[in-house]
């Protein structure tokens, strides 16, 4: 199928065309890049990042969010970013089973993407896929990460609103303090609030946030509670998501979000390109290991530049 035919089907609202377009982009095909140039900056989806440690209940919360948003008549897409298989490069976890009850709903689209070695975080293909979902016309896009490594920081660079999901029994709050995630989340949700220690975690979060630096535009992140399997706390979460998006609009911060997302996408492409180049030049890596070249000299050769000055900036 050529790009023109796929675009025609895409604009006609064919889900299979959307799926094919994402596959082209994720696989790095030139046709995918052509599609992105034609479709970028179309649509006005609200991008919501959901992160938290494994077992925090992200998928169940996503499932309930989908349900609540669909009742409001909104269309929803979900990008579930999974850790990559070290052997195939594909997503390990696959489409989340709990969300599959929405599979037959034409107003819901769920897709798993592999992180593809992006240092435990998001891959550039994730941001490109977001552009396609926006162009397809979804009202909301949920980006769910596995919640390890760089994913929490990455998601904050990509989403309009970042939601950190914690639980009472896993020491999540302490880990969030240590990892600095407190600084990047726009909303906090203590899920499984019916477990022992729920109220204590809420108070710890509120106390810490009172001492934290104010967010851009003076936003004060709320601490919410939920029991996702029972649907408790979901309406309050939707209201908080709307309130944060309205705050971004009123303060003119959405354009800054878009610029940061584009910067992240370019950096991700460079990272992926560098990873592939190092694998295709084993002799260069052997020279570094033997002390014949410094890592910077090897990188200069791979990049074809004379200097790396300023590259990290």
Give a verbal description of the structure.
The chain has 313 residues and is of the alpha/beta class. It folds into three domains: 1-39, no CATH class; 42-252, Rossmann fold; 262-303. The chain has helices at residues 3-11, 15-26, 30-39, 58-71, 124-136, 151-158, 172-179, 198-211, 234-250, 254-280, 282-289, 295-303, and strands spanning 46-51, 76-82, 108-114, 140-145, 161-166, 187-190, 223-225. It has a seven-stranded parallel β-sheet with strand order 3-2-4-1-5-6-7, with helices on both faces. Helix 7 links the parallel strand 5 and strand 6. Helix 2 runs antiparallel to helix 5 (124-136) and helix 5 crosses helix 10 (254-280). The protein is globular, with a radius of gyration of 21 Å.
Could you give a short description of this structure?
This is Putative GTPase. This protein has 313 residues and is of the alpha/beta class. The chain is 48% helix and 12% strand.
From the structure above, extract its key features.
single chain; GTPase activity; 12% strand; seven-stranded parallel beta sheet; 3 domains; alpha/beta; globular; 313 residues; Rossmann fold
Percentage of residues in DSSP E strands = 5-15%
Distance between the termini: 40 Å
Mean pLDDT: 81
The strand count comes to 7
Helix content: 40-55%
Regions with little confidence, pLDDT below 50 for 5+ residues: 84-95, 306-313
- How would you write the strand order of the largest sheet? 3-2-4-1-5-6-7
> Could you say which overall geometry the principal axes of the C-alpha atoms support?
globular
Q: Main sheet?
A: 7 strands, parallel
Secondary-structure element string: HHHEHEEHEHEHEHEHHHH
Overall number of domains: 3
What is the CATH first-level class name of the largest domain?
A: Alpha Beta
The second-level CATH architecture of the largest domain is 3-Layer(aba) Sandwich
CATH-defined fold name of the largest domain: Rossmann fold
Radius of gyration: 21 Å
Structural class: alpha/beta
Contiguous helical run count: 12
- Any idea what the CATH superfamily of the largest domain is called? P-loop containing nucleotide triphosphate hydrolases
